Amino acid sequence: MSRQRETTTLWRPTGPEELELVRESGWRAWPPRLPEQPIFYPVLNEAYAVKIARDWNVKHDGAGYVTRFEVETEFLRRYPVRQAGGETILELWVPAEELEEFNAHIVGDIAVVHEFR
To answer: Is the pTM of this model over 0.85?
Structure first.
């Protein structure tokens, strides 16, 4: 009998270009970072992801999306939670060179839960 893995829910605000690459992966992985993006940062609460997608991605990309996905909790323990501002502005900072391994620990599909234009 197989044990079900404990997972943690993460959110990621994203623009249309990154979202298209996620779609091309079959909704299973985040694309490699660009040279000017040394960190991949999923966030720990939906409200913060909504704020970024709505207030930043729409302004810069014409659309913003909030995605939700599950990652194995045990794997995430290697990344300390970073407070990037107020009390609820919480992120994980995943070095770009670890993103492929991070993707391997995603459980299920990456889902779009909000869209802003």
So the answer is: yes
Find, among 46, 19, 34, the residue nearest to 117 by Cα: 19
Residue 3 pLDDT class (50, 70, 90 cuts): low
Give the H or E element holding residue 33: none
Q: Which residue has the tokens 């070095």?
A: 95
Confidence of residue 2 (pLDDT cuts 50, 70, 90): low
Distances (CA, A) of 104 to 27, 29, 36, 108: 13, 8, 23, 11
d(CA 55, CA 52): 5
The SS3 assignment for 52 reads helix
The residue whose two tokens read 């694309």 is: 31
Report the run of H or E that residue 24 belongs to, with start and end: helix 16-24
Which one, of 104, 98, 39, lies nearest residue 12 by Cα? 39
